[in-house]
C-alpha cells in the first residue's frame, strides 16, 4: 500500500507538472502572438543650407569695344584665370588696379566675355564684368605702342520721352555714362 501511494503521488505530481507545462505553453504562445506597441518616430523637416547666388554674368551678346594690343586697367580684386571659364585655375590676382595688355579675345564662356591679358606675374584670362559689380576692365585709351585709340560714338538718336524703339542688339543700361559705369540691367534686343 505504501508503494501504491508512492506511485499515485508520483503520478499526481507528474500529471500536475505536465498540466502546468501545457498551460504555460498555451500562455507563452498567446504572449508571443500579441503585438507589442512601441512609440512611432516623428519625422521633422530640417531646412537645408541656403544657397547664395554668385555674381550674375553680363551674357555674351555685346562685348566691350576693346582690341588686341590695347592697354586696359583691370580693377582690383579680380581673379585672373588660366582658361576663359569660371572653373579655370587662378593664375593671378591684383590687390590694386593694374595696367595690362589685351593679347586675345573676346571669348564667350560661362555667359561671360573673357579677354586674354599679358600682365605682371602670370598672363591669363579676365572676365569683362558682372551685372552686380560692373566692368572689371576699363580702357586706358592707348595701344601698347603708345598710339591713342580714337573711338567715336555714333550720333545720338533723336528720341522723345515715351517713344518706343526696337533694339537691334542687347544694350547694357549703366548707372552712369561710360564703360566704367555699373551695369544696372541688360535690355534685350528686339524689345
Label the structural class.
alpha+beta
Query: SSE order, as H and E?
Result: HEEEEEEEEEEE
CATH-scheme architecture of the domain at 70-150: Roll
**Residues in β-strands, percent:** 25-35%
Classify the helix fraction into a percent range.
10-25%
Gross morphology is flat
| Rg from alpha-carbon coordinates | 42 Å
In order across it, which strands form the biggest sheet? 6-5-4-1-9
The termini sit apart by 123 Å
CATH topology of the domain at 70-150: SH3 type barrels
So, the CATH homologous superfamily of the domain at 70-150? SH3 Domains
Enumerate how many helices there are, as a single number.
Answer: 1
Biggest β-sheet: count, sense, barrel? Answer: 5 strands, antiparallel
**How many β-strand runs?**
11
Instruction: Provide mean pLDDT, rounded.
Output: 77
Q: What's the CATH class label of the domain at 70-150?
A: Mainly Beta
Describe what is shown at a glance.
The protein has 191 residues and is an alpha+beta fold.
Overall description:
There is one protein chain. It is built from one helix and eleven strands, in the order H-E-E-E-E-E-E-E-E-E-E-E. The protein has 191 residues and is of the alpha+beta class. The chain has a domain at 70-150: SH3 type barrels (Roll). It has a five-stranded antiparallel β-sheet, with no helix packed on it. Strands 2-3 form a two-stranded antiparallel sheet. The protein is flat, with a radius of gyration of 42 Å. The mean pLDDT is 77.
